[in-house]
Amino acid sequence: MGRVTVGYQDACVYPLWLSRVNVRLARLMGASALWVPDHFMGFTPAEVWRPEVTPAARVVPSIDALFDPLQMLAVTATRIRGIDLGTSVTESIRRHPMSLAQSFVTLDHISKGRAILGIGNGIRENTEPYGLPYAQNVARRGRTAKSKRARGFEVNDMRYAMGDQQYARGMPRRSKALPH
User: Fold this and answer.
1) For position 96, what pLDDT does the model report?
2) Strands, sheet with 160-162, edge to edge from the N-terminal-most edge strand
3) Which of the four CATH numbers 2.60.200.30, 3.20.20.30, 3.40.50.1240, 2.60.40.10 does domain 7-43+67-167 have?
């Protein structure tokens, strides 16, 4: 049986200094992984996100001011060593399958094998308000796996999380047929 580890999920919201401080504190307290959400908007109603009701609103003016998770993970990969980096979760509705594959392969190289692709089916609240089709989202996730294979990466060796289960089986590696 594997050992139990603890990760930290950052909100990935403005102001940036808050994420920097929180990630460093999590690492100092022993977190072995950083997870960031991949959303266009938060899920807390605006009526509740006011300083009079929610004290955190004094520091975070808008729960909808989310940063791009892949850029946050890439910066973290260059600044903090020994911590796994993953999305909780992304999907292939807002990000084209080939673009998603390319982004995670790049993150994997930047982080030296610490990237974890957390991928799910997506949710309507994060797609339809922006004019993105929610129909056939499961089929699109399958095309994402094909995109990774087309780029010369072994899907069976990739670390990924689907739903509430995480699978860790190494990281994507270049196929011998492709140059480094």
Assistant:
1) 82
2) 7-9, 33-36, 84-87, 115-118, 160-162, 165-167
3) 3.20.20.30
For the chain, give percent helix, strand, coil, nearest 5.
Answer: 35, 15, 50
Amino acid at site 16: L
* Cα angle, residue 25 at apex, residues 60 and 5 outer, rounded to 5°: 115
The pLDDT, as a whole number, for residue 136 is: 66
Q: How many other C-beta atoms lie within 10 A of the C-beta of residue 140?
A: 17
User: pTM for this structure?
Assistant: 0.75
Collapse the DSSP code of 140 into the 3-class scheme (helix H, G, I; strand E, B; otherwise coil) and give the result.
Answer: helix
Q: What is the pLDDT of residues 136-174, one digit of tens each?
A: 666 666 666 665 555 444 443 445 444 444 433 333 343
